[in-house]
Amino acid sequence: MTSMGKFIKRLLLALILLIVAFHVLVAGLLLMWKTQPINNSMFMLTHRLSGGSVTQKWANYDAIAKSAKQAAIVSEDSKFSQHNGFDLDGIEAARKKNEASGSMSAGGSTITQQLAKNLFLTSHRSYTRKVEEAIITVIIETLWDKQRILTAYLNVAEFGEGIYGIDAAAHHYFNKSAATLNRDESALLIAMLPNPKYYGKNKGDKRLRNKQRIIQRRMNNAILP
């Protein structure tokens, strides 16, 4: 074997070991976070490194209003309680939409996939990131139950500039705790999730208010874990 061939072999081995080490770290953190509050994520870390401040306070499952959990499911992942981390119908629909547009504008991501991205990855869209997201999604679904996944998602999701988690959002926008959110407030906060920085400064936006109404109409259909 030539020296170049040996170098490439060593490089590939180092890359494989690095990937394995990363996933071992992910699994270790998930095991710790199975019972402990999560007060940091890749999105929060990126925000801090860019010079911003982060506001976040952990709220347990029972300290989050039922309406907020219902709103999250009907808006972000209607089959959340039935699937194992992947909505195949949603993925297929997103694939067709991306092929038609020639971009990766649609992701078809479940709540678990979004949580994997928020905790460990970045917002950069690529097929490589989607593969990594899928691997972490499997690990999350293996180690956590659905209540923990939904709780973690609502606690690390971004609801505005530097505002992370449903409790911080409830205090910021309504001066109340996540436990006391009503249906209108819950629907509005969840409707902000696709573009929280923009909607946080434009709460009267017609698209936001229309989505809020749609979420409210569907809320009773949510199957909670």
UniProtKB/TrEMBL annotation:
Pfam families recorded: Transgly
Annotated membrane topology: Single-pass membrane protein
Enzyme class: transferase
Reaction catalysed by this enzyme: [GlcNAc-(1->4)-Mur2Ac(oyl-L-Ala-gamma-D-Glu-L-Lys-D-Ala-D-Ala)](n)-di-trans,octa-cis-undecaprenyl diphosphate + beta-D-GlcNAc-(1->4)-Mur2Ac(oyl-L-Ala-gamma-D-Glu-L-Lys-D-Ala-D-Ala)-di-trans,octa-cis-undecaprenyl diphosphate = [GlcNAc-(1->4)-Mur2Ac(oyl-L-Ala-gamma-D-Glu-L-Lys-D-Ala-D-Ala)](n+1)-di-trans,octa-cis-undecaprenyl diphosphate + di-trans,octa-cis-undecaprenyl diphosphate + H(+)
Function: Peptidoglycan polymerase that catalyzes glycan chain elongation from lipid-linked precursors.
Entry EC no(s): 2.4.99.28
Biological process (GO), any one: cell wall organization
Protein family per UniProt: Belongs to the glycosyltransferase 51 family.
InterPro entries in the cross-refs: Glyco_trans_51, Lysozyme-like_dom_sf, PBP_transglycosylase, Pep_trsgly
Domain Glycosyl transferase family: 53-219
Main location class: membrane
Keyword terms, alphabetized: Cell inner membrane, Cell membrane, Cell shape, Cell wall biogenesis/degradation, Glycosyltransferase, Membrane, Peptidoglycan synthesis, Transferase, Transmembrane, Transmembrane helix
Subcellular location as annotated: Cell inner membrane
GO molecular function: pentosyltransferase activity; peptidoglycan glycosyltransferase activity
Residues in the signal sequence: none
Pathway: Cell wall biogenesis; peptidoglycan biosynthesis
Name of the molecule in the record: Biosynthetic peptidoglycan transglycosylase
Gene3D superfamilies, sorted: Biosynthetic peptidoglycan transglycosylase-like
